[in-house]
Amino acid sequence: MTTRAPAPGRAVRVGRPAALHGTLAVPGDKSLSHRALLFNALASGEARVTGLGLGEDVRSTRRCLEALGVAFLDEPDGSVVVRGRGASGLDEPEGVLDCGNSGTTMRLLLGILAGQEGRFAVLDGDASLRRRPMARVLEPLGQMGALGLGRQGGTLAPLAIRGARLRAIEHRSPVASAQLKSALLLAGVQAEGVTTVIEPSRSRDHTERMLAAMGAAIQIDGAAVAVRGPVSDLRPLSFHVPGDFSSAAFWLVLACCHPQSRVTLRGVGVNPTRTGLLDVLREMGARIALEHERLEGGEPVADLVVESSPLRAVSVGGAIIPRLIDEIPVLAVAAAFAAGETRIRDAEELRIKESDRLATTARELARLGVDVTEERDGLTIRGGRPLHCAAVESHGDHRLAMAAAVAAAAGAGATIEGASAASVSYPSFWDDLRELGAEVVLE
User: Fold this and answer.
1) What amino acid positions are annotated as catalytic residues?
2) How far apart are CA 229 and CA 89, in angstroms?
3) What is the tens place of the pLDDT at every residue in 364-387?
4) Which of 16, 86, 387, 440 is the most exposed place for a label (fewest CB within 10 A)?
């Protein structure tokens, strides 16, 4: 099906269907797509990657790598061949590296560029990315020997970095952040000695899995991850990118909350460091089955089958939050349809995403009639009240746009302003929603 993403700023009207049935293949995992391009750029040789996510964030990563001298070959079957430059073979870019809306692109590139000795680069992004904190990455990279500068004392983009001969460090992260951990491990691949990152709880582990598969000496001890450098001969890694669990999350919640639904999602990545939402939905009473479980490229994959489910309220917080941090806006939608009071805590990290996701989620769900209270570090949702049709705003945040669409299709409909934000991670979202039976009208 040809994707018809709304034009920038365009509104979409979503109606509630009588039933939701169908089978979908969600886009390739965004986190793995970034890493497939970035890590293979540092390898010696060619890698063939299929199933790459085609959202704007992944395109930003590719454009930045092209500016650093990495060549890509697009094959007729949709696969992409990455021609690696080796661990220290990137060019100094002639212009600014535009990371768009992608925090992953900016933070992981900082880790890579920190070890490109003597080369200078400037990284920038859109207005949203310029508000996201970067000191947590630049400061430890500075301890390793790189020189990084930015607005407000190195806190905000645009950022400048000059690569150096790096030395290994042990870094205790104040937050569980896969982006921070990945940036430091990528710098560690280029550093002398053992670089260790210790988190308060373990974040998603795609970086550790992929670097190990490419030949890096990775050691894992609970929430501590270490890499021994320098690694001059990373092996290219060809693999198929599984479907993005964070994209599948919207259909899991929609099918649970709609009273007449059964949806199958094929080939979704079910890495346990990513599937906290699956655990919470099952605790809420969701009927979700994993079928045809297998490993692809070292990542666990399954088909997910979900159907209408009576949900009950839960309390969510602590160590599970890093495993579902991106899914909290759509989890809040599930809570709106659940019987009782759901409490989400320890999620203050959401205030520095593409939008302040605690504030914007609470504001837009309230417009639809949800009884929701914004807390300092989370949300309280008193579920079970009927929703009503209203106009809501995406705030330029892709996950908020899609969460609002789920609430509309399971509830009483809505008009979503700024619907084009969904293209950041899921360009075919509106077509897939229509494919399942919902009324979707561009306005």
Assistant:
1) 326
2) 16
3) 999 999 999 999 999 999 999 999
4) 86
